[in-house]
Amino acid sequence: MQSSGRRRAFKLAQDRWSATGVRTTSGTSKPSFICFNCRRQSTVAASQSPSPTWSSHQKASAGASLLSIDGHNYQTDSWTNVPPNIISAVPRRLHLQSSHPIALTRELIESRFSSPIFKHYNNFSPIVTVSQNFDSLGFPADHPGRSRTDTYYVNKDTCLRTHTSAHEADIFRADESVGYTISADVYRRDAIDRSHYPVFHQMEGARLWDRREVSGGEIAKAVWADVERLPKHDLKVEDPNPTIHEERNPLQTEFHSAEEVEAIAAHLKRSLEDVVVEIFSKAKEATLTAGDGKVEVDEPLRVRWIEAYFPWTSPSWELEVFWQGDWLELLGCGIVKQNLLNNSGVPTKLGWAWGIGLDRVAMLLYAIPDIRLFWSLDERFLSQFSIDKPASRFVPFSKYPACYKDVAFWLRSSSSSAGGGIKSNAQDFHENDVMEIVRGVAGDLVEDVKLFDQFTHPQSGRKSFCYRINYRSLERTLKNTEVNKLHDTVRNELVEKMGVELR
Known about the structure:
By secondary structure, the chain is of the alpha+beta class. The chain has 13 helices and 17 strands.
């Protein structure tokens, strides 16, 4: 079993591989860049009815046996925790909608990984097996990402993918090209704010070389020849650490030589630096066109490579970009774990892989301030983006007033029985459960939810939490009576589903 520190490291690695918000190196989210969410309704209807109701065959908690998602029925069980607002997101597939900023960003990155070397996969179903999502990538049994507080389960064997890497082993096994990219919508239970949403979009890529197809089996020589064919650039690159470090960034000594990894790492880094040039050149053009004085016309692009840890690559790195005065974490990458390739039936191949969050890149590229905007059907938003015109900064069409409401409650003592199917004593409480209730009631009418205060009673030891909910629509002014009704429903569902005692 892993120690708690190791489990936290696994969790952080999963988030950093293709995180949902561009973060400064201090670890704080930069509010201008972020992303995810969804709803298949008219804009007005979405605001008036934030979450669809359960149909009779979707009430898993009431003992029904089938859950309908995107036209397919799935058996439910005690693990089922996919709510209606998430089900309604599945058909949207923003990464495939023409002229949508997520799709435009995908196409921009894909252009740097051209065929026939790279094949692009964009249509995989988000319903995957637990084995695909976790086991195939070497996630240990006690990895926190497997928890029902983090992942949406259709049933104990099936879930909504939490990352595009759920399809990695299948693609390696299919062996249809030496390289690939995947783009897809992914799902995770998470906080509510302008940079987090339970549905977001990732993109990943990989490039492999086959020992059987290289002259004399000399992988390093063949890869260095491929490096010379990659585009050159004038980035200022900081890469102070050795490619391999025995403790911090180890070589897979059983499978790879140091010379092979040096060559593959050089190919990986040059390929991703080329992506940075493409993305940030466009972002710089858009910023200068908008007259933003934060960007110097002649300021060279700067990147730096940071040693990292990911369960499915070693050695591994994060790529950071210096942009408007901050170092921003952009993506994660590394040398593919050979066991993953061996288990996928391609033991003679080795290579690199990377992952990035499409939403955060789109928010940076188009200066989109709130993740919920990606899911808007408002033409004032959608009309600002087109495949037929250069990237330009988003022009806000309005700023509607915020309406803050607090909700405070006591958790049950550890000896109390939990109600509503969600445990709420001090040992089992998880903040994501609160977020799911708020989302289920108010949908995109909530901008953020923040822990405002917490308290432990000195005699009883009971814990109390107070959350501040910011109700704010992106498209209209909310009426106080409407917000009061939503907030009352949130309070009631906290009691019903979590068994808390309101204060």
